[in-house]
Amino acid sequence: MGKKDKTRSTVNIGINDDDRKQLADGLSRLLADTYSLYLKTHYFHWNVTGPHFSSLHTMFETQYTELAIAVDDIAERIRALGFVAPGSYSEFARLTTVPETEGVPDALSMVQQLVEGQEAVVRTAREFFPVTEAARDEPTADLLTQRMQVHEKTAWMLRATLG
């Protein structure tokens, strides 16, 4: 995580090396949270049962599809800053705040865990947002704003499912 890619020329985008490293580190945590939430959502999609199977199965598919696109966007931003994006389960496990699920919970517990996961991603993004402002990194700030908006809306929709 955060290692400089020695195969490329120096990055000169108007953000100093230390700030770019802080940005890449924050984005790496966001990537780990997003990927962990993707995996959990996909797992729940495969294993949901009960009277709301069809609607939850479809909802979870929509969510993990969106998350799959997001992980690519986040990883590509890390690369644009000149750093290597994390990509192993061990790195993600070390960086994430989204806990793994043991066993197969019931449908309502799945929804509650996804609410908590969506909110965890928002907190991670919000936590390092000040770094983007201090570095005047508008592209990363824009990415964080978009991610927070998606995750807050998704958490709201999931909470509405709980009643």
Q: What does this protein look like?
A:
Pfam families: Ferritin. Residues 25-162 form the Ferritin/DPS domain. With 163 residues, this protein is mostly helical. The chain has one domain (23-162): Ferritin (Up-down Bundle), CATH 1.20.1260. The protein has 5 helices and no strands. The chain has helices at residues 17-47, 53-80, 89-95, 107-134, 138-162. α1 crosses α3, α1 packs antiparallel against α4 and α4 runs antiparallel to α5. It is elongated and about 55 Å long. The model is unreliable at 4-8 (pLDDT under 50).
β-sheet strand percentage? under 5%
* Oligomerization: single chain
Number of helices: 5
CATH homology-level superfamily: Ferritin, core subunit, four-helix bundle
Sheet with the most strands?
Answer: none
| Cα shape | elongated
- Helix content range: over 70%
Q: How many whole angstroms does the radius of gyration measure?
A: 17 Å
The CATH architecture assignment turns out to be Up-down Bundle
Would you tell me the structural class of the helices and strands?
mainly alpha
User: Tell me, what is the CATH class?
Assistant: Mainly Alpha
Low-confidence stretches: 4-8
Termini separation (Å)?
A: 40 Å
Q: What is the strand tally?
A: 0
